[in-house]
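#random but structural
TW: two for the price of one
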Amino acid sequence: MKKTKNIGWVIIIEGFAGSGKSSIAKKILNPINKKIGNTILLDGDYVRNFFKSLKISFGYTKKERSRSAIPTAELIKLFSQNNINIIYPCVGYNKFATKLWYKSFKNLVYIQIRSDIKKIIKFGKKKMYKNTKKNITGLDIKPFFNKKADIILRNDFDQPISKISNSIIKKILKII
């Protein structure tokens, strides 16, 4: 992909809750910042809390997840258009959001972290799987898997996050 000048890169890291996407995002932030310049991490939870502080809140139903993609894309675009690179880990797996990301961002690297949701639950990666039984992507909300993602990696929790992160960094640098 050829970079559009003066527009930052948007690196979307998509995966189930507990798949390691935020941990990976934190590990790749500094190396990516050193290689391509001014890069920030906008975690999906931070973005949700930001909108909540503005009295704009979104629920977790499939429809509400789709609706939240629009202001999130605008926020990310604000940074990107000012030549700031963004790493955005989010649950995603939403067809509407996926189409919106491709339409909204000129310099996009789309990453999917594929994990077996049963393993995530078994390893107790997220308490939400025990406490909440509805509106969870991968359980009662059918995930949309983007077959055009630039990078698709499995995290079966059998290798360290640092190894997965190093692999992702190498693949990102080949793309950008």
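TW: number two ↓
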Amino acid sequence: MALAIESLIPHRAPMRWIDALTGCTDTTATATVQYDPGHFAVSGGVVLETSLIECVAQTAAAALGQRSRTTGKTESAQHGVLAAVNRFCIQSRPPLGKTLTIEIRELRRFGPMLLIVGTVACEGQLIASGELSLYA
């Protein structure tokens, strides 16, 4: 189910930090990204760890865009804001040239506020995990 990400989120290069939405249910989503040396999130040949937080947030945005499409709306998610980062732990530096898998799960929704938990893994190894609060 790899969907064209630019049809689901408003982010464009150089600020689009996920490549494809590969799974989406009512409360979960999975996306992928592969960093190359020219990516905006790469500095001095090294992927910036903070980019992982944005990958999780953009996966949530892509899921909201896909859910909107399934209800008959054709526009991407347009008005989301990352409001808070909580207990986000980075285990290791993201590798260049390898596919990262981002998984999110909704924990709670309070009106426009959404609390999610997300993980980032590479080849089955956990790289990062934590919670984000989004206004969406």
